[in-house]
Each structure stands twice: as structure tokens, then as C-alpha cells.
Fold this sequence. Notes:
Blueprint: E1 9-15, H1 34-41, E2 44-46, E3 49-50, H2 56-65, H3 69-72, H4 88-94, E4 99-104, E5 116-122, H5 143-148, E6 151-152, H6 158-171, E7 180-185, E8 194-195, H7 197-206, H8 223-231, H9 239-269, E9 276-282, H10 301-304, E10 308-311, E11 319-321, E12 325-326, H11 330-337, H12 352-355, E13 366-371, E14 380-385, E15 388-393, E16 400-403, H13 422-438, H14 441-459
Parallel strand pairs: 1-7, 1-9, 2-11, 3-12, 4-5, 4-7, 6-8
Antiparallel strand pairs: 2-10, 9-10, 13-14, 14-15, 15-16
Amino acid sequence: MNEGGAVMNVLVIMSDEHSHQAMGCSGHGIVKTPNLDKLAREGVMFNQCYTNSPLCTPARASFFTGRYVHEMGTWDNATPYDGKMEGISHRLHEHGLAMTSFGKLDFHPEGRYPGLDAPRPKHRSQVDAGAFFRSSNQPRPKVEERFKKIKVRQGDSYDDGVRDEAIEWLKGKKPGDESWMLYVGFLHPHFPFLTKQRHWDDYNERVKDIPEAAKPPFASLNEPLKSLRTHFGGESVDEETIRKSHVGYYSLIAEMDENIGQLLTVLEEQGLKEDTLIIYTSDHGEQLGNHGLWFKCCMFEESARIPLIMRGPGVRQGAVEETLVSLVDIYPTVCEALRVPVPEHIKGRSLLGIAKGRQDTGREDYVFSEYHAHGMPVGMYMIRYRHYKYVYFTGGYKPQLFDLEADPREMHDLNRNDSVSDEVQAIIGQCHSRLLDVCDPEAVDTRAQAFQEQTRISLGISSYTQADPASVGGGEKLPVPFPEYMNADD
């Protein structure tokens, strides 16, 4: 590695719905990710990275802006980020650089993003109205169709096109060129699990059973989480479907890993490896039936904890870093790598110093996540502090507390009983004070629900059957709403 030189280039690869646990380098016993494993051996794996919201559109807004969802009003998949708050591309543009993007961004299709060159952007073009009916406690329309789409795929995927376009772009670069940033957004391993035959055959042979956490009883579900289970049809999914879901999910991870490997090979062939910081992460994870829940939208480890691997000039090799970090930290990391001033107003902090072995004494001792979207009738917030996870629900429900050292599968809520120890009470108090440092959870939930109701009315959506994106307005394409900003002048 070029220890003394400046990082000239940045490559950010973001997958969709990849849990931290589902990698070889994180200790999974079945999933094979040789290219991510190599990246981790040659760099740093951040072992405690979390999404700031376990849902596509809000999470990507936090990644791009370094801000929390409640600051931007990007509450759900109906109100995507629109560029009004400064993001990575804006900052680079101000300093004479550009961000090139291939693949999924999930921004507003009519937004403005100075400095962003996206030849084939994938934005949020349909209104996912599920968040407008959060309190209905009904299954999501057509949710059962997702489980019927677990099968072998014929032909190329969307990601194959993204890979090829990114490779062609990289082939046009050479050492000594002007600094650049490239973003590659893969859809895999997100549902539907349409996989290549050879990967399906491999994992269908290897996946014999389902995890114990995917088998009832699901003691960690409170009433709001039970509503989420109903929303995704969790009660009707049999064990063979759960097993097949694991087969499909692992197969798509293997396919994604191969695509990443091809990108890394071209980077090396072009002589760009020594001068490029590579960041791999995902927007959120995937529940796969664990705790009776599916997809994402909750704060359990499978959904909220995500991969983050960094390799580049001066970055430690083969290190596993236990500092608590989250998606908001990527924006300032990119800025520091490209020698662009880091904005003062954002929530994240650069990870480059930590990656190189330095301490960050100014970093908060917790990370924060929030959820305000479909299936969850109340606001849900997470504080990860020390080895504890605190999950707060609005509406008077008891918060949950899990000790991830003693209970990594989150099977035992320490705050479940009416009587808890003084030690548990103290930890709950410490976690809650940190939550209040970030926001007033009840006020934020009131804001979110009021905005979602106003948006539903303005769009003329009256029936929950319209919550499926494919059937909104009886097939009529509705205008994508713009988010409501709390600090639009910042």
C-alpha cells in the first residue's frame, strides 16, 4: 500500500439487504464470499456497523447526506431523498470533483444532485404507500408473491449490467488521472431470490435446516413487532419456504461477491489498486424468518447490522475493528479520503483514522437507528451502546434491552418482566439518555405520522389494497412525494 501518499480515488460498493453475519469473513459457516474475504484480509472489517434506518430509501438518504432520517423527513419508501440537503456529490462538486454512479441510488426521480453523474440511475419511481397504513395490522398486499419467486433465474440480472458499466468506466481510468469517486449500487441480495442455477444447486445441497431463531416461539416479539410479522405474512410461512429463502439469499450473495471480484480485478489491472480507497457496505440486512420476521424493518441484528469493509492506502490489513459505526460515517470518510473539508453539520465522523489504527476520541459511544414505515404502527428507535442494544417504541410500549455478548441471537429481552435488576435499570437509563441526545422520539413519531397522513390524503389514496407499488391507483402512476425537512436551512 502507498502508506505515505494521499488517497486519490474512492470506490463505494453498496449492496441491498446484506446482513453483516452473511459473509465468510464474519464467521458464517455456510455462505462463501471469497472476494469480500480477500478485501477484509487486505483491509479493515468494521465488525459493529449499523444502518441508520432498516429500509432502503431512508438508509440511502442517511448514507448520502451523513444525516439522520428524522432530520430529512425521508421517513419511508414513499418519500425519497431529493437533493435539497447537501450530500456527497454536492460537497465534491463544490471542490471541483464529481461522483459517478452506476446502479441503485433510490433517490427522488425529480431531485437535483449537483456533481452526480448517473448514466443509468435507479431511483424510487413508484409510491410505496404501505407507510400510509401503518396502524392497519393487515398483511401487505401480495406479500405471499415474494415467496413464490424463489427460483432459478435464466439470463443476466440487473446487477450484471451495473457491473459491466462500472467495469467499462474503470477501464477508462489510469494512475495519475484526476481524483475520482465511483459508486456502484447492486440490487442483490434483495428479494426476489432469482438465482443462477449453479449457486442454487450449491446452497440447496448445503442448507439442510433453518436456524433455531426462525422457529417458534418468538419470545422477543412485543405487540408492535407482532404487527410487523403480520404485515409481512410471517405466520403463514412454512419451514421449507424458510429453508428455500436461505438457499436463494445465500445464492445471491455468492453472485454479488463474484461481481465485486470482477470490479476488484479490473481495478488492479488498471494499476489503480494502490491509490484507491474501497468501501463495501449495504443499506440494511435481511431477517430471513428469524424472530418470525421477514425482509428488514426491525432492529434485530439480521436487519440492522450491516457489513462495512475498507481497503486502501495506509489502511490496516487483516484488522477487525470493534468501534461502533454507522452509514452516516461514510460521507465524511469519502471527504477526508479525497481531501475535501468535512461538513460540520453532519452526524457522521470519518472512519479513515480508525481504519489506519488511530483512535477517534471525539466519537460518540453509541450508534442510532430509527424506523417509521410500513408494518410498524409506532415509532421504533435503536441505541447500540457498549454490548447492549436498546430498542424504544413510542405509544407507551416497554423498551427492549438485549445483551449481545451473553445473548447474540437476541432471544432474551432483559426488560421483559415487570421486575428488573438495578443494573438493567441503569443501562436502560444510560441508553435512553443517549436517545434523547439525538431526538425526542415521541415528537418525531408524531411528525412522521402526521406527514404520512397528509401525504396519503394529497395523493388520493384511500384503500390499503393500494399499498402494493404495482397496484397503486389501480395501475395509475402517482407522483412521488417530496420529503419534509426539519433543518432545511442547514
